[in-house]
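Subject: Sanity check before I submit

Could someone independently write out the structure tokens for this chain? I want to compare against mine line by line before I put it in a report. The sequence has 668 residues.
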Amino acid sequence: MKPIKLSSKKKMRNTLFIAFIIIICLIGRIGFIQFIQGGELSSMAYQQQTLDRNINPKRGTIYDATGKNVLAVSSTVETITVNPGNIAKENKEKVAKILSEIFEVDYEKTLKKVSKRSSIETIVKKVEKEKADKLRIWMQENGITSGINIDEDTKRYYPYSTIASQIIGFCGSDNQGLDGIEAKYDEQLKGTQGAIQRHTDAKGGEIGNEGENYVSAIDGDDLVLTIDLSIQSIVEKYLAEACIDNACTDGGNVVVMNPQNGDILAMATYPNYNLNTPYEAYTDELKQTWDSLEQSEKTKNLQAVWRNKAIADTYEPGSVFKLITASASIEEGLVTDIDKEGQFACTGSIEVAGVRIKCWRYYRPHGSESLRLALMNSCNPVFIGLGQKLGVQKYYSYLRKFRLLEKTAIDLPGEANSIFLAEEKAGPVELATISFGQRFEITPIQLVTAVSSIANGGTSIQPRVVKQIIDSQTNEIQDVPVKTNGEVISKETSEKVLSMMESVVAEGTGKNAKVAGYRIGGKTGTSEDGVNTNKYVTSFLGVAPIENPQVVVLVTLYNPTGEGGHQGGGVAAPVGGQIFSEILPYLEVSQGNQEELDVVEEVSVPNITGLSIKEAEKILKETGLELSIEGITEENEETLDKENTIIKGQTPTEGIKINKGNKIFIKY
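---
Independent answer below. Compare away.
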């Protein structure tokens, strides 16, 4: 026997050492897989061997403020899927054919799905139960018990179609909220998915005899809104009429708020859209050209109508903002007696830092005025002077108190903030324009919230749209708390401003908002929509009843181009009056002005378009109404030929019922 060479021994030793190292590594790897990655790999194996078909929960129901009217509900539908590996080869064409026939889908695409080497393929989602039942009968008649799945699903349905569309919002194909309340409260509404689980091989074939494991879905919670369906319907009716009659090219919106608790009773935007078909054309004009539009143009139009203008769009409020200046001035003691004659004087204009700013009635100055008369006349110089006395620092402190420099935090998505010049950059001219409501922008909801502080006695309150959440499992009701943000003005100041607002409606620019028997206060506003655009925003803000305000109403109309003009008193105030005339009785608000109810008589507006001004004055006098000529100045009033000047338009229009003594605004 030959001795082993040293080199061979060395090789053997090295080989054994390497083998030992490899064994150690393998043991380490096995240990790592077993103890470190074991849970993760086990989960992955389970997922590979388990076929899950999701069960969508029902989204929570959305109710109006009464808790009786359903604004959004989920109905039961079906989703059809197939497991290609469980469908016999000789049945694939037959299955594809019946699926394409019942559900009206492309046969070739369906056959491709049925023939794929995958575990599951979706054929169609959210089909009506009647169609799914046809498939069930066919499967039974043809002895097919596996490979085709019919699972319960849900579909969102909006019973009132267009009502409150920009508030409620809509859902996507996966039941996820995409806009409005549906998006803001998606977590509460959506619920938790369930599943049908089954052990399968790579082709989708069943492993073992365990069958299917059913995990129930948990339905979403219900919501009760502050929106009252009846009030919302009234508001949308009159808003649509106003936008159409006055040819408002950019639409309009109305907000109705309870100033005592911040509840939004109605919030309407015109035009609106059908919540059940949110991606389709929403006006007759668009329907005619919809198919020919580029997708980008369609998207632009849809996003515009989905937009809730009351919270997402800013505008110059105009003279309505004089309520804020008046409140701050009274609270600071600049005015103690709102009826003191001669405290102010309007000469037609006022000079600020070398810039002369005119009163809207510069051609016939208001002359000697009290603060009440100044608000009734909507006199710019008076409020500019008050702003100067307050000063920038003090004025901005009130903007903060009224929460006009921040969002209201209303529970809706997409709220915009106001646009004011920074306090340190505001000079005398900027302060002057802010004092009478121009050269800054706020949202309608910010203005309504601010004036609600005046209406409720001086407390800042946060607006809300949802007041209750109902648990789907326990039916437990969770109340959404009313939130306040401290005192803005005193109760005494509040009462004085409300008293002046009542005079504006009784005898001032808001006369067309009067409703017999009710004590209503208000303020009209007209402003330019941008600089040198030749577009206007006209508005009316009303509060009722003055003795115990329960409702604040803001009507905002964007660029009215109709024959009735664009003045707040002639265009927006009548809309406010119409809304008050229906919602105050509905809310069972007592008629606190019985004397007026006994005296004031409603009359139907006659048609004076096409008549001469002299003829119209005679007819209106006999009817008990007054005539107001838009755009008249001191110069052209004297030279106006009333016998031969023909009226081209009137506001309110023929047939509308208003109180005797109100004004009819005309264009010639």
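---
OP: Matches mine. For the report I'm noting this point. The chain has a mean pLDDT of 87.
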